[in-house]
Write a structure and sequence with these properties.
The complex is a heterodimer. Chain A has a domain of about 40 residues: Histone, subunit A (Orthogonal Bundle), CATH 1.10.20. Chain A is built from three helices and two strands. Chain A has a two-stranded antiparallel sheet with strand order 1-2. In chain A, strand 1 and strand 2 form a beta hairpin. Chain A starts with a helix and ends in an 8-residue tail after the last strand. Chain B has a domain of about 300 residues: Amidase signature (AS) enzymes (Alpha-Beta Complex). Chain B is about 40% helix and about 10% strand. The chains are: A mainly alpha, B alpha/beta. The interface between A and B is large, with 52 and 74 residues.
C-alpha cells in the first residue's frame, strides 16, 4: 500500500504536525513500508478473538471520593510558555 | 583497596552501615568517575552534583544518629530522564521538554528516595523512550562503554551504560517494548522489566500506556531484588497499578534449581540471529540444566506477529499521549503571533524529532476514521493471541529462557536510515510487553569483539520473585556479570 502526499498531509493535520516537503516525502515512503509490514496481521483469522483491552485480569476499581492535597496554582503554571492573571495564555483561536 | 565505585549495592550499603566510608565519600567517588568518563560515554542529560552531595550529608547524619535508618540510606543511583524528580529538569530526551521542571516526583523514584537513595542525575534516553539505540535522543547519543563506536541499546541506554561504566551502582529504566532489557543485553548489566501494573507509572512521562513499565538496572540480580523490593507495589495515583501484595524477594544461597522447568521457545532462535548470541544463550540454558533445571522445548506460535502488533498499538497510544505537547502548559512555544492551531503545529512539527513524528503519524493513521478496525482493533485481537501463547506455555513450564536481542550491540548509524530494520532489533522483547509478563535480562557471555550477550527469563504475571531466584542462582554459578570493561583504554585523568 502506498500513501500519497495528500494522505500524509491529512494525517499530519490531524496530528497537528507542521512538516516540510522533504519530511512529507520521506514519511510517505517510510509509513507505506511499515503499513505493508503490519499487513502480515491479515494472515490471521481473528473474527472470534476478543481484543486485549487489558493484559491483567484485575478490573479497574473506584476509589473513595476524598479530597487530597494537590499541586499549588503556581506549580501548575510554572512551566507554561505564557501566563496572565493566574491563567494559561494562548494565541487567538479564531483569526482577529 | 577496591575503588568505592566497584562495590555492589549490597557491599556499599554494608560499608555505609559500618562506617567504613561515608555517603559523601561514596557519592564523591561516583561524581569523580562520572567526571572522568562522561566525556566519552554521554550517559547523562542532566547531572545534579550539588543536590547529590547535600543528600549525602543528610544521609550521613541519619546513619550516625539513627539505630535503624531506612534500608538504602546514602546510596547514590541514576534516574532515566523520563521519570519526574521534583525540581530537576525532565527532558525525556526531547527538545519539546527542554525547559520542563516537574513540580512532583514519580512514585517509583519517591519510594526509593524514602528508602534512602540519592539521585546523581537524569540519564539519556531515546526521545520519549522511542528507540533502541539512544540515537533518537535530541541531545546526543550515549556510547557503549565496551566499545564506544557501538550503541548502548535503548531506550534506557544512558542508564545501562552508566551502570556498566560504574558511574552509578544502579539506575532506573523503563520498558515499553524492551527498553530495559535490550540495553542491559548490549551493555552487559542486569535489569528487570516488571509485570505490567506491578510498579507505579505515576510520574513516568507516558509513551504507550498499556505497555509502559518502570524497571531497574544494576550489576547483579541480588542488588536488583533489593532495590525492586522498595518500589514495587500498589499506588493509588496510578489507575492501572495492581493491589496484588508484594512478596519478599528473598534469594537462595544455593545455585540448585531442582524442580524448575525452563521452556525454550523455538520461535526465538530464528534465521538471522547472530551465531554467537544463539550459542551463548544455549550455553546458559545448558548451565541452568546442570544446576538441576529441566529444559523443555515450547512454542509461542504468534511471536512473529508481535512486531506488527506493537508498532500499531504503541504508536496509537503515543499519538494520544503526546497530544499534550502543544506549547501551552509546558515546553517552549513556537509559531508566536500565529493562530492557535498554527502555533500547535509549528511547536510540535519543529520540536519533536523524526522518530517521534513518525510514530505519532503512524498512530494517528491507525486510529483514524475508516482505519481503526483494520489496524488498531486488529492489533488488539492479535495481542490476545500473543497473551494466550504465554498462558499456554506457562501451563507447561515455570519460566521461559530466550535471547534478549538477535545481535550484540550494533554500530552507530547502522539502522538510522531504515526504521523497519531498527524495529527488528526489538523482535524478542516486544512479546513480554504485549502479554504484560515480567522479564529479567542478564549477561551470559561475550562475542569475539568483546561485546556482551544477554539472555532473558520471562515468567507468568507477578513471578518476579521466581525470575530473581533463577537469575541469582545462575549468577552464583557463573561470573559473566562480574566482567568489566577496561576504563583506562579511553578515559583521561582516571585514578587506577
Amino acid at each position: 500500500m502506498k500513501l500519497s502526499i495528500e494522505e500524509v498531509e491529512h494525517i499530519a493535520a490531524l496530528a497537528r504536525l507542521a512538516l516540510t516537503d522533504a519530511e512529507k516525502q520521506r514519511y510517505a515512503e517510510q509509513l507505506s513500508d511499515i503499513l505493508d509490514y503490519v499487513a502480515h496481521l491479515d494472515e490471521l483469522d481473528t473474527e472470534h478473538i476478543p481484543p486485549a483491552d487489558s493484559v491483567l485480569d484485575e478490573t479497574l476499581r473506584l476509589r473513595e471520593d476524598q479530597a487530597r492535597p494537590g499541586l499549588s496554582h503556581n506549580d501548575v503554571l510554572r512551566n507554561a510558555a505564557e501566563t496572565e492573571d493566574g491563567q494559561f495564555k494562548v494565541p487567538p483561536v479564531l483569526g482577529g | 583497596m577496591t575503588a568505592l565505585t566497584d562495590l555492589t549495592v549490597h557491599e556499599a550499603l554494608a560499608g555505609l552501615r559500618t562506617g567504613e566510608f561515608s555517603s559523601r565519600e561514596l557519592t564523591e567517588a561516583y561524581l569523580a568517575r562520572i567526571d572522568a568518563l562522561e566525556p566519552d560515554i554521554h550517559a547523562f542529560i542532566t547531572l545534579t552534583p550539588e543536590r547529590a552531595l547535600a543528600g549525602a550529608d543528610k544521609a550521613d547524619a541519619i546513619l550516625k544518629t539513627q539505630d535503624d535508618p531506612p534500608p538504602l540510606t546514602g546510596l547514590p543511583i541514576a534516574v532515566k530522564d523520563v521519570l519526574c524528580l521534583a525540581g530537576v529538569r525532565c527532558t525525556c530526551g526531547s527538545k519539546i521538554l527542554d525547559n520542563f521542571i516537574p513540580p512532583f516526583t514519580a512514585t517509583a523514584v519517591q519510594r526509593l528516595m524514602e528508602a534512602g537513595v540519592i539521585p546523581l542525575g537524569k540519564t539519556n534516553t531515546d526521545e520519549f523512550a522511542m528507540g533502541s539505540s539512544t540515537e533518537n535522543s535530541a541531545y546526543r547519543p550515549t556510547r557503549n562503554p565496551w566499545k564506544t563506536e557501538h550503541v548502548p541499546g535503548g531506550s534506557s541506554g544512558g542508564s545501562a551504560a552508566a551502570v556498566a561504566a560504574r558511574m552509578a551502582p544502579a539506575a532506573f529504566g523503563t520498558d515499553t517494548g524492551g527498553s530495559v532489557r535490550q540495553p542491559c543485553s548490549f551493555c552487559g548489566v542486569t535489569g528487570i522489566k516488571p509485570t505490567y501494573g506491578r510498579t507505579s507509572r505515576y510520574g513516568l512521562v507516558a509513551y504507550g500506556s498499556s505497555l509502559d513499565t518502570v524497571g531497574m538496572i544494576a550489576r547483579n540480580v541480588a542488588d536488583l531484588a533489593l532495590l525492586f523490593q522498595q518500589f514495587a507495589g500498589f499506588d493509588p495515583l496510578d489507575a492501572t497499578s495492581v493491589r496484588e501484595p508484594v512478596p519478599a524477594y528473598n534469594l537462595p544461597e544455593t545455585s540448585l534449581l531442582n524442580d524448575l522447568r525452563i521452556g525454550v521457545p523455538e520461535e526465538y532462535f530464528i534465521k538471522g540471529i547472530q551465531k554467537e548470541v544463539e550459542d551463548g544463550v544455549k550455553a546458559a540454558i545448558a548451565q541452568l540444566e546442570t544446576q538441576g533445571a529441566t529444559v523443555l522445548p515450547i512454542h509461542l506460535p504468534h511471536t512473529e506477529y508481535a512486531l506488527p502488533v506493537y508498532y500499531l498499538i504503541a504508536p496509537a497510544e503515543a499519538s494520544a499521549n503526546l497530544a499534550r505537547y502543544d506549547g501551552i502548559r509546558f515546553g517552549p512555544r513556537l509559531g508566536e503571533g500565529e493562530e492557535l492551531w498554527e502555533m500547535f503545529s509549528q511547536t510540535r512539527g519543529q520540536l519533536f524529532g523524526a522518530e517521534v513524528k513518525r510514530r505519532i503519524m503512524l498512530g494517528t493513521y491507525a486510529l483514524s476514521a475508516g482505519y481503526y478496525d483494520a489496524y488498531y482493533r486488529k492489533a488488539q485481537k492479535v495481542r490476545t493471541l500473543i497473551k494466550r501463547d504465554f498462558e499456554g506455555a506457562f501451563d507447561q513450564v515455570d519460566v521461559i529462557a530466550a535471547p534478549v536481542a538477535p545481535t550484540t550491540a550494533f554500530k552507530f548509524g547502522q539502522h538510522t536510515d531504515d526504521p523497519l530494520a531498527m524495529y527488528l532489533e526489538d523482535v524478542f522483547t516486544l512479546p513480554a510487553n504485549l502479554a504484560g509478563v515480567p522479564g529479567l535480562a542478564f549477561p551470559v557471555g561475550y562475542d569475539k569483539d568483546g561485546l556482551p550477550i544477554g539472555m532473558q527469563l520471562m515468567g507468568p504475571h507477578f513471578s518476579e520473585a521466581l525470575l530473581f531466584r533463577v537469575g541469582h542462582a545462575y549468577q552464583l554459578a557463573t561470573d559473566w556479570h562480574e566482567r568489566r570493561f577496561d576504563a583506562k583504554r579511553y578515559a583521561k585523568g582516571l585514578k587506577p
